[in-house]
Amino acid sequence: MEASTRTDRLTRNNGAREYEVGVAVPLWLPGERTRSQALADSELGAVDSRLAAARWRIAGSVREAWWAVQTARQDVQSARARLAAAEALAADVARRLRAGDLARADLNQAEGAVASALADLAANVAAEAAAAQNLRSLTGAVVAAGLSSVAEPEPSPAASLPADHPAAREIADKAETLRRSLALAQAQRRANPDLTLLTTRDRGAAGESYGQTITLGVRIPFGSEDRNRAKQATAAADLAEAEAALAVEQQRLTSELESSRARVAAARAALQAAERRAQLARETKGFIDKSFRAGETDLPSRLRVELEAAEAERQAARAAIELSHAISIWRQALGLLPQ
């Protein structure tokens, strides 16, 4: 929008007056409007993909924090079971001490096992509190103590990297935006011409009547090709960088998917071995317990077997959670949100 006035009041003051008001409208270059709209649509799609990728990354952090809480809670449960077993054994030793079957040193060893179990429980409770606080900082909610650690549905072993994976889609949409930006820069080879419409109202001297004219003009700028060529080169370089980043990201995601699938297989094998060890440890504990009650096994051996059985049970429980955790990581690698 432009406006101007002209007068001879400061010179001859003959009453000459002129008023001019106009508007200048830039004109689209060939193909510029269509490519501008395409770029705007691509930018909107890129915003959606960035939000989806952000949700996916947050989901990964929440998954890790969630399974850290489950592991810590399982350790607390194992420590409580160990403490209960140690207290029961100490009570049995105290009873047999009063009966004259065992020495005072045996009671000291049993009570030492109780103290060790108490210290282990305290350390695990502290670790659980820290893990729960970390999860709360991510979700903003307190995790209920009764929530189960059931695994998410296991994906199909043949599942491959999806084409709409949030991380790959984010970079792909960015590359598409840069591609359309380059197409727009190629259309904008020079500055836009202007269409100008002016109306002029003037008189030559005082006493004359005002006349009015209309002016229609086109202004075409020159000399902007070099600046626009530099803009095209920058857009082309950004596009090449984004396409290279997309290829690297797809390779990384594929490697993560294969790694997560192998981790699930390893976790399943580890769970089977841990469950077998726990079963054998329970059987051995039963044998040694009977032998100890019969006076055929000393207390140090009984305490050692008790500790080994508790550790085997803890490892089995941890292996079960690790399998669920590995399945969760597999789903994360596939770009799936938690269920």
What does this molecule look like?
This protein starts with a strand and ends in a 6-residue tail after the last helix. With 339 residues, the protein is of the alpha+beta class. It has helices at residues 32-98, 104-139, 166-187, 225-293, 299-333; strands spanning 2-7, 17-26, 194-203, 211-219. The protein has one domain (23-142, 166-197, 227-333): Outer membrane efflux proteins (OEP). The longest helix has 69 residues, at 225-293. Strand 3 and strand 4 (211-219) form a beta hairpin.
What's the average pLDDT?
88
As a whole number of angstroms, the C-alpha radius of gyration is 39 Å
- What portion of residues is helical? 55-70%
Estimated share of beta-strand residues: 5-15%
User: What global shape is seen?
Assistant: elongated
The main pleated sheet reads as: 4 strands, antiparallel
Low-confidence stretches: none
Short characterization:
With 339 residues, the chain is of the alpha+beta class. Helix content is 68%, strand content 10%.
